[in-house]
Amino acid sequence: MISSLYRWIRRFFADFDATHREKAAALTVIEMEELENIFALLLLGAFTGVPSPPTFLAVELLPYMDRELKILCKRANDCSDMLAEMCGTIGID
Fold first, then answer.
1. Does position 78 have pLDDT exceeding 70, yes or no?
2. At what angle do helices 82-90 and 66-77 cross, to 10 degrees?
3. Contacts from 64-69 at CB under 8 Å and sequence distance 24+?
4. Is 28 helix (H, G, I), strand (E, B) or coil?
């Protein structure tokens, strides 16, 4: 009886720990994506009216923006397709 109660409590806390670890990892991924968006906005800010960094610095950092530039080109190609825009907003590639 006590052994089964102990196993149940141990399994409960193990599941509790796993759930919180998954949530923390998901939040970290979301934060990383937002930081990438901010990075892209800083480098390509001239398109939106935000002051951009010096040109030599932006050119040196452009190779790190490969993914963002692909997304930018894809969104530019799909700008007239409403379904593609909605899928992009949701995060479906």
1. no
2. 150
3. 64/39, 65/39, 65/40, 67/36, 68/36, 68/37, 68/39, 68/40
4. helix
Q: The tokens of 68 are what?
A: 């963002």
Query: In one letter, which amino acid is 62?
Result: L
Give the predicted TM-score (pTM) of the model.
0.50
Distance CA 71, CA 55 (A): 22
Q: How many CB atoms lie within 10 A of CB 66?
A: 9
Rounded distance, CA 53 to CA 45, Å?
9
For the stretch 7-19, what's the b/e string if a residue is b when 16 or more beta carbons lie within 10 angstroms of its beta carbon? eeeeeeeeeeeee
Query: Domain limits of the chain?
Result: 2-90
